[in-house]
């Protein structure tokens, strides 16, 4: 857990830097170059099949599939052996995560009920684990370790909800031939798992086939990473650290934290401030995203968790008080990476993306500053 938090925290700092770089590029004379580079097409021939995608699509459909593979590995490990393996441990972050997904979606829907932009209802429902844990790490010993575990568990469950939302609500027109190929690949992964295969190579080869089939099937390609992760065995030959899942998770973590997510942030954070005035604050998409993240996430998580604790079905994380717990709930409004990812699926033609990016940046920034202030200021009062 300590190594996980250190990697996530350092990755969060790098994400901030890449976001700043992207904003600087877009609002400089290099803005046109930035946009042209992202839309360069790269073709990869695979026999009779040619995958011809823009660089932005390769990042969002290819590199992010590796990110979702890591997410699936973390979810599986936590559910079988970790913080999500017992009902008493999982109940508080699970109910909090559900509230934190529902309330922001309702806020967004309230502002966009009569608009085609209602398709973006899931954008403010996500929590960025790297950013949120990064803020907690800055607070150091002012935050009990139990709150970091709570936030990590909630963000993992939140990611699981985002995966389901992407699979069911943001898939395109289906190609039944490629979907059948994806089904065959899943059966092959299940067979490898059932036969007790412990070498990673066969899983990764089948996973690559699964990704290609998903890419062409109409179901978002990142779902392939999730399915592959769920079939990687957690049991090793002798020692626990030799388990295929643990080896792959530890191998992927630095690549995802220090390369894949920063590249994603660099490619998706570009927001031109040209022409943005006070009238942008009246945009329903901006309001739905910004308020959904800043107000909706903290309200949904804290209210549901408070109800669970008051009902006696759960208890506060060990060593934490209500003020620290509330500050942690505020930090769940940092949605950056996953919110931008869902936004790209909700508005593939680019409509409303400027308002969405502005809402994600402002809502996440407010959540980070407010959450930090609540914990830091009230924590000092408690110590005094």
The CATH homologous superfamily is called Na+/H+ antiporter like domain
- The termini sit apart by 30 Å
Q: Total number of β-strand segments?
A: 2
Number of helices: 14
Task: Give the overall pLDDT as a whole number.
Answer: 85
The oligomeric state is: single chain
| Class from secondary-structure proportions | mainly alpha
Report Rg: 21 Å
Percent in strands = under 5%
Indicate the low-confidence ranges by residue numbers. Answer: none
> What is the share of helical residues?
over 70%
What would you say the CATH architecture is?
A: Up-down Bundle
Widest beta sheet: strand line-up? 1-2
Estimate the global geometry from the Cα principal axes: globular
CATH topological fold name:
Na+/H+ antiporter like fold
Number of domains: 1
Question: Class in CATH?
Answer: Mainly Alpha
Can you summarize this structure?
This protein has 384 residues and is mainly alpha-helical. The chain is built from 14 helices and two strands, in the order H-H-E-E-H-H-H-H-H-H-H-H-H-H-H-H. The protein has a single domain (2-170, 220-383), classed as Na+/H+ antiporter like fold.
């Amino acid at each position: 857990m300590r190594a996980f938090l250190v990697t996530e925290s350092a990755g969060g700092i790098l994400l901030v830097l890449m976001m700043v770089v992207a904003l600087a590029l877009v609002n400089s004379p290099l803005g046109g170059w930035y946009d042209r580079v992202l839309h360069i097409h790269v073709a990869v021939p695979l026999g009779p099949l040619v995958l011809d995608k823009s660089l932005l699509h390769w990042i969002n459909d290819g590199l992010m599939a590796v990110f979702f593979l890591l997410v699936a590995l973390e979810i599986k490990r936590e559910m079988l052996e970790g913080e999500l393996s017992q009902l008493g441990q999982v109940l508080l972050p699970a109910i909090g995560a559900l509230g934190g997904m529902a309330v922001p979606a309702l806020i967004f829907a309230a502002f966009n009920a009569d608009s085609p932009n209602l398709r973006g209802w899931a954008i403010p429902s996500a929590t960025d684990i790297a950013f949120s844990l990064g803020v907690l790490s800055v607070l150091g010993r002012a935050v009990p370790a139990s709150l970091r575990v709570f936030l990590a568990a909630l963000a993992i469950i939140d990611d699981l909800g985002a995966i389901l939302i992407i699979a069911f609500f943001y898939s395109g027109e289906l190609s039944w031939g490629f979907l059948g190929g994806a089904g065959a690949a899943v059966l092959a992964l299940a067979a490898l798992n059932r036969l007790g295969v412990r070498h990673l190579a066969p899983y990764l080869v089948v996973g690559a086939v699964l990704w290609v089939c998903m890419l062409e099937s109409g179901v978002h390609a990142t779902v392939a990473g999730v399915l592959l992760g769920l079939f990687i065995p957690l049991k090793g030959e002798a020692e626990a650290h030799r388990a295929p899942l643990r080896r792959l998770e530890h191998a992927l973590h630095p690549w995802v934290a220090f390369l894949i997510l920063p590249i994603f942030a660099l490619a998706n954070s570009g927001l031109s401030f040209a022409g943005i005035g006070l009238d942008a604050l009246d945009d329903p998409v901006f309001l739905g995203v910004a308020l959904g993240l800043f107000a909706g996430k903290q309200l949904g998580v804290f209210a549901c968790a408070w109800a669970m604790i008051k009902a006696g079905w759960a208890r506060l994380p060990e060593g934490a008080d209500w003020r620290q717990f509330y500050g942690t709930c505020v930090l769940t409004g940092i949605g950056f990476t996953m919110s931008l990812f869902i936004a790209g699926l909700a508005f593939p033609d680019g409509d409303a993306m400027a308002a969405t990016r502005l809402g994600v940046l402002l809502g996440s920034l407010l959540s980070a500053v407010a959450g930090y202030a609540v914990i830091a200021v009230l924590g000092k009062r408690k110590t005094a």
